């Protein structure tokens, strides 16, 4: 298939962190608590207990005995709030690690060549950018666009976009006989330019056909497994 030059439409993921032992998680939590609590507002006995609990050493029994019942009750309530905040922070960090970049979930319409260039320049270096170049009057463009809507929901880490060839100002570079075209970028570099894509399908095709076609070029990541993020976070927290 011929390739078409386009002037204006022209590391490895970090592995999941090692699971921590219960002791390591508890120490992390106490360090977080020490950072989030206003130390100056606490009585000396409570500050000393927090300092000991946030260290890697076992607190001294005589320090624990200096707390009376009301102080222990207040400390328990503070612990519950701090643990909730800590858990939320860890879940947020885990989601960011698992996603390996921003998440999208839908196809973005690009209204101009400048919008395309801005998207390409701002894109996260780990994000795969898939751009559909189309014209409403060209057969197959509308069907392929609908298929990409489905794939965008199934592959939320892939940034799917579409742009009208006429609106982009590149109609002379994308005549009707090469549309619909799919351009794929990563880290600002074009990986592949696929022209007249629908010629690879029959008169009627589904999102699964487009998925298999793009997957054959190695242009789609592994489809995320439902509940994978929650399972990992449940273990790591």
TrEMBL record:
Protein keywords: Cell projection, Cilium, Cytoplasm, Nucleus, Phosphoprotein, Sensory transduction, Vision
Signal sequence residues: none
Compartment list: Cell projection, Cilium, Photoreceptor outer segment; Cytoplasm, Cytosol; Nucleus; Photoreceptor inner segment
Keyword Acetylation appears in the UniProt entry: no
Single biological process term from Gene Ontology: regulation of G protein-coupled receptor signaling pathway
Cellular component, GO, one term: nucleus
Family the entry assigns: Belongs to the phosducin family.
Name of the molecule in the record: Phosducin
UniProt organism field: Electrophorus electricus (Electric eel)
Species lineage: Eukaryota, Metazoa, Chordata, Craniata, Vertebrata
């Amino acid at each position: 298939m011929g390739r078409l030059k386009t002037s204006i439409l022209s590391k490895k993921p970090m592995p999941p962190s090692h699971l921590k032992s219960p002791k390591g998680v508890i120490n992390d939590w106490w360090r977080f608590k020490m950072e989030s609590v206003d130390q100056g507002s606490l009585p000396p006995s409570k500050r000393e207990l927090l300092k000991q609990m946030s260290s890697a050493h076992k607190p001294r029994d005589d320090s624990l005995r200096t707390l009376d019942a009301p102080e222990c009750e207040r400390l328990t309530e503070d612990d519950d709030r701090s643990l909730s905040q800590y858990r939320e922070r860890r879940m947020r960090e885990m989601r960011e690690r698992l996603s390996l970049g921003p998440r999208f979930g839908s196809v973005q319409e690009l209204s101009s060549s400048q919008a395309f260039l801005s998207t390409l320049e701002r894109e996260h270096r780990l994000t795969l950018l898939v751009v559909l170049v189309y014209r409403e009057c060209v057969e197959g463009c509308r069907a392929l666009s609908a298929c990409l809507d489905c794939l965008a929901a199934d592959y939320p880490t892939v940034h799917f976009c579409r742009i009208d060839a006429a609106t982009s100002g590149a109609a002379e570079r994308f005549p009707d006989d090469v549309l619909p075209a799919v351009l794929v970028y990563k880290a600002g570099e074009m990986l592949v330019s696929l022209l007249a894509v629908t010629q690879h399908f029959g008169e009627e095709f589904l999102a699964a056909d487009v998925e298999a076609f793009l997957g054959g070029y190695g242009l789609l990541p592994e489809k995320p497994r439902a509940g994978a993020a929650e399972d990992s976070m449940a273990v790591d927290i």
